[in-house]
Specification:
119 residues; alpha+beta; 7-stranded mixed sheet; 3 helices; 7 strands; 36% strand
Length: 119
């Protein structure tokens, strides 16, 4: 990523699967002021109420929608829930301008997710 940035490329979104969804990677991307979307395992801990953590799979998110939560050890993010092959998949979205996190809609997620699969 650093080499690509040296070429002058400034990606709008960095995307990846759950293999790359570590807190270290998220913090690196945040430090680079980059937006990102990654798949998440359903046992990641988030908080709707400060200090009370639950696993993502226990969030009350309607199918094919999103919610803003605090991802343990990171920051506020948007979590999207999508039905895929008869199971739930979860995705985290983060905007470098995090004060606008609530402005990310499920339609935005669908667009970014679609672009990810076109690569």
């Amino acid at each position: 990523l650093k080499e690509v940035q040296l070429w002058g490329l400034q990606p709008l979104w960095i995307t990846g699967d759950s293999w790359y969804s570590s807190l270290d990677n998220f913090k690196f991307l945040k430090h680079q002021e980059l937006n990102f979307m990654f798949a998440l395992k359903n046992n990641r801990l988030v908080s709707i109420e400060k200090g009370t953590y639950i696993q993502i799979r226990n969030l009350d998110i309607p199918d094919n929608s999103s919610v803003t939560v605090y991802l343990k050890g990171f920051n506020f993010v948007k979590i999207c829930k999508k039905i895929f092959k008869n199971e739930y998949r979860y995705y985290v979205l983060y905007q470098s301008q995090n004060d606008n996190i609530d402005s990310i809609s499920y339609d935005d997620f669908e667009r970014i997710h679609s672009e990810h699969w076109n690569i």
